[in-house]
Design goal:
alpha/beta, Rossmann fold, 4-stranded antiparallel sheet, 9 helices, about 35% helix, globular
């Protein structure tokens, strides 16, 4: 369970989150959508305590996030940031192994159980054959899968993803969304910001719409994309189209 109670966050005098109150149930895939600059990424960083709210409380599994030791929190919640770039040469295997750090003691090396988890993460993301490659040599989609594999290696029950499909081709986009569905089936709680509303509606169990740092809607996808709400939040019109018994959203000025 993730619950935010009246969370406010600001950088200097610029308020970014304005009284966010929302709860996300476990073992589900929750999508966050909203215009650029609406506070989606900031919301994720407040959940995992990269940034701390100015006021309000974030609860993780009914615990006040402020009272959870950093190393314990890192084993509970992991964040896959947007457009991660690695500026130094490192193999995919080494990158994924970083996910085991919350489970290691000071100066402790990888144990068999750590190596087993790393290999499982590589296989689960279908990049095991790339494990010896330099991560800087991978395509955008392969690199994103490596970063997700690192998150899986933590064994965290809560996975936060910031625009995990941004800039990817259709193949890797669907690969990642289908992977998130498998992780949900394994008991993970997943919260992902997404820019593609059709993708969010197809794969997510709930949709939370953030606008101007506030919650405009949270609930089932079937109710999220009401025409007036989309006009108010995104300044576009929307129509639901049915083709071959499948429904999708069509947006126009």
């Amino acid at each position: 369970m993730i619950r935010l109670d009246n969370v406010h966050f600001a950088i200097d005098d610029t308020e970014i989150l304005r009284g966010i109150t929302v709860a996300w149930a476990p073992r589900m895939l929750h999508g966050i959508v909203g215009p650029n600059g609406s506070g989606k990424s900031t919301l994720l960083k407040n959940i995992c305590r990269i940034w701390k709210p100015r006021s309000g409380v974030v609860h993780i599994n009914n615990q006040d996030c402020r009272n959870i030791p950093r190393k314990v929190l890192s084993a509970m919640v992991t964040l896959v940031p947007q457009n991660t770039s690695i500026s130094f040469p490192i193999s995919v295997y080494e990158m994924v192994s970083f996910g085991r750090h919350p489970h290691l003691g000071r100066f402790e090396g990888l144990r068999k159980l750590d190596r087993d988890r790393i290999e499982w993460s590589l296989k689960e993301t279908h990049i095991y054959e790339l494990k010896d490659r330099n991560i800087n040599e991978l395509s955008g989609g392969e690199g994103q899968l490596a970063i997700i594999a690192r998150a899986l290696a933590t064994e965290a029950s809560i996975i936060l993803l910031d625009e995990p499909t941004s800039g990817l081709d259709i193949h890797h986009t669907l690969t990642i969304m289908e992977l998130l569905g498998r992780l949900k089936a394994q008991g993970k709680t997943i919260v992902a910001t997404l820019h593609d509303l059709n993708l969010a509606r197809r794969f997510c169990d709930t949709i939370t719409i953030v606008n101007n740092g506030m919650i405009a809607f949270t609930g089932p996808p079937s109710e999220a994309f009401e025409a007036q709400r989309i006009r108010d939040v995104f300044s576009v019109n929307v129509k639901e189209i049915t083709s071959d018994s499948k429904k999708f959203l069509y947006f126009y000025p």
